[in-house]
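Final report, closing paragraph on structural work. Over the funding period we assembled a curated collection of sequence-structure pairs, and we close with a single example.
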Amino acid sequence: MALGDLLDMRRLLILAGAVSATVALSPVQSQAQEFPPGDVRLVAAFPAGSGSDVVVRWIGEKLRPLMNRTVLVENRAGAGGNIATEFVARAKPDGLTIYLHTGSSMSANMHVFKKPPVDVATAMQVVGTINRQAFMLVVHPDKPWKTVAELTAHVKAKGDKASYAVSATSGVVMCALYKEAADLKAVEVNFRMAQDSLNDLASGTIDYACHDPQFASAQVTQNRLRVLAIASAQRLQSNPGFPTMTEQGVNMDLNGWFAAFVPAATPKPVVTQLNKWLNQILATDEAKEFLAQFASDVMTSTPEEGQARLLRDIQLWGDYVRIAKIPPQG
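Its predicted structure, as stored:
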């Protein structure tokens, strides 16, 4: 065989090998290659080690093999989540900076702060929702109150000597709705972190609290808190034993929800791919079991459905903030 023919044969074999390697790529590898190159940052608006931070890190661990790249968690706590929100909104819209946060908190901040750093309705795009959760009315387990009615009778008897703990906007609203519906005179005590209220609840300095489900459910398992009721109108599938405030005569339907967000200018194909990966994680039994630990139900959506929920919540939280008489901050 001539030298030229041998060279042509070698080129054909090299080409065939390259084609075979391309065909052999798994769907995960193929999708990851189509996604912009680079490490991924998951931004958390909570301190490391907090209940919500644990959720962010779990999602990150599950995303890593699907995206086939390094996924890092970056905590940017402070200003009620505004620091993290602004950071992500102004990040490069390439899909490599993802914000895992509660849509309800972002919506509330549009009304709680005089000058929010960004308009989340136009600056942020929902990739997909993650869960449905509800804030909780809690007391110390050593106290005798087992129902909302029993707590209400105690608080009414104390008048303005009664007090309650809050540390997040949703908790402020939940306790304010309860206070108004039950005609209570209890005094609000705002703590920087929910865990800071535990000693005062144990000593009786504080009578009750409205805290987030990640923190409250973890304290229940350690016998540090008792849940009297949750703020959503329907019971949670993950924790059906927790009664609702509505069932106990205090009408409210205050739902929290966790979601993934990216800057609004992120290309639609990138958002769509992120949504597929996120929903793939949430479709597993492992995800359902993991989120159930934090008294929450898996809730998935398309980016369009998630964005519609965000816009709806921004309007709802305007009413909640007015009802709770929350003074504007900043």
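The longest helix spans residues 303-324. The chain has two domains: 36-133+255-324, 136-248. We thank the funder for supporting this effort.
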